[in-house]
Amino acid sequence: MSRHAETVRRVTAPEVRARKGGEPVVCLTAYTAPMAKILDPHCDLLLVGDSVGMVVHGLPNTVGVTMEMMILHGQAVMREAQHALVVVDMPFGSYEAGAEQAFANATRLLKETGAQAVKVEAGEYIGATIKFLVDRGVPVMGHVGLRPQAVNVDGKFRAKGRTREERARVLAEAKAADEAGAFAIVVEGVDETLAPEITAAVRAPTIGIGASAKCDGQILVTDDLLGLFEWTPKFVRRYADLKATIDKAAAAYAADVRARRFPAAAETYVLNASPGGKPQRRRVAGDGKRG
Predict the structure, then answer these.
(1) Alpha-carbon distance 183 to 44, whole Å?
(2) Around Cβ 252, how many Cβ atoms within 10 Å?
(3) Could you tell me the residue ranges of all domains in the chain?
(4) pLDDT at residue number 123
């Protein structure tokens, strides 16, 4: 066990729930072990989101994401995340048919990844399922407002809450998830005046994404805030421009390879003859190690 694992205590679902109205909950997405290691010290919650289908696998939306994909990426994140509560999205089709289906897939996700909770997109119909899971020991995070898994019904990713009917429906979804026992509720892509109303109406902390600073916490897709894509949603603030940095580095590498400047002497191995006449590989700084 690493020293980090011995000295750092993981955030729990009840602790996140207890943050209602207090210090904002910091959340980001993570899909890989190296990124989880970087983000973990800064976050209260890491979400292995089904957005991985679009961000990593190049899918047009999240509908094509599978249980196997979520398990693979959940395992990767759990290898390095030691502090943050790790939540794994339940992919489209893995919970909508009913509570028994949801429980089988939720327990599989938790067992095979080691994560601490699951997230479901919470239409009003899902309340009974959330309660079924919570009653049986599965912490559940809800997700209301713009629900990416419903993109084929909506026709596109579209903000919610611009009409009275939509506002009432999203509020009802949030209340249903809250009453069923969700420990937190993601509120995505809603009218700015609706998010505070939802936050005031539920006991669980709300986690905003394209919602309002008045939510109990915030989450973004990490690759968006790092500037890894040409386009980002309106609600994203770019904190870096890594796409340009990576492009510049790749171009410099390509130029060095074509000009035979790489590898140089410092990046190659030399076999020296030992006193006994046997070839001996000379080690260089960082040989065989990763930082």
Answers:
(1) 14
(2) 12
(3) 3-225
(4) 81
Residue 190 to residues 27, 158, 161, Cα–Cα distance (Å): 18, 9, 5
State which residues of the chain have pLDDT below 50.
1-5, 291
pLDDT tens for 192-203 read 999 999 999 999
Of 166, 147, 144, the C-alpha closest to 156 is 147
For 8-55, write each residue's pLDDT tens digit. 899 999 999 999 999 999 999 999 999 999 999 999 999 999 999 999
pLDDT score for 5 = 44
Q: What is the per-residue pLDDT for 2? A: 46
- What CATH class is the domain 3-225? alpha beta
Distance, in Å, from the CA atom of 61 to the CA atom of 157, rounded to the nearest integer, reads: 9
- Identify the pLDDT of residue 271: 87
The residues carrying an active-site annotation are: 188
Q: Is the pTM of this model over 0.85?
A: yes
Contact predicate 110/138, CB 8 Å: yes
Report the alpha-carbon distance of residue 161 to residue 170 in Å, rounded.
Answer: 7
Instruction: Supply angle C-alpha 106, 110, 114, rounded to 5.
Output: 170
Q: Angle, nearest 10°, between helix axes 194-201 and 164-180?
A: 30
